[in-house]
């Protein structure tokens, strides 16, 4: 089995602020059920975490820029790591991700390269 990172991009940076407690609980229940299903089938390596929409980026010259200026659809908003036989199986897993309950999101599926 190989490991694959799901890189969540886009979404509404103000959703957590504007969501009602009921909306938040409903979405968290979907995430919990999805993670439990992956764990039960030994496909979950790490549930990952959501990431704040603001941050800093350093380039090779150590120039620091604010990533809030990047288009929202390009901002990484979180990640998870799963175990699958191949990238097609990983994509099949990603299709059921609760992130798609939010508008304007994408999931990038990337194989984690094992070093050494």
From TrEMBL:
<dbReference type="InterPro" id="IPR005545">
    <property type="entry name" value="YCII"/>
</dbReference>
<dbReference type="Pfam" id="PF03795">
    <property type="entry name" value="YCII"/>
</dbReference>
<protein>
    <submittedName>
        <fullName>YCII-related domain protein</fullName>
    </submittedName>
</protein>
<dbReference type="InterPro" id="IPR011008">
    <property type="entry name" value="Dimeric_a/b-barrel"/>
</dbReference>
<feature type="domain" description="YCII-related">
    <location>
        <begin position="22"/>
        <end position="115"/>
    </location>
</feature>
<comment type="similarity">
    <text>Belongs to the YciI family.</text>
</comment>
């Amino acid at each position: 089995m190989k490991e694959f990172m799901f890189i969540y991009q886009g979404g509404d940076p103000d959703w957590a602020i504007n969501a009602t407690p009921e909306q938040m609980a409903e979405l968290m229940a979907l995430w919990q059920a999805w993670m439990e299903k992956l764990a039960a089938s030994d496909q979950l390596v790490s549930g990952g975490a959501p990431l704040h929409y603001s941050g800093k980026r350093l380039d090779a010259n150590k120039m620091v820029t604010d990533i809030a200026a990047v288009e929202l659809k390009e901002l990484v908003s979180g990640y998870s790591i799963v175990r699958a036989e191949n990238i097609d199986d990983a994509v099949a897993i990603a299709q059921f991700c609760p992130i798609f309950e939010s508008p304007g999101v994408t999931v990038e599926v990337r194989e984690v390269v094992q070093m050494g």
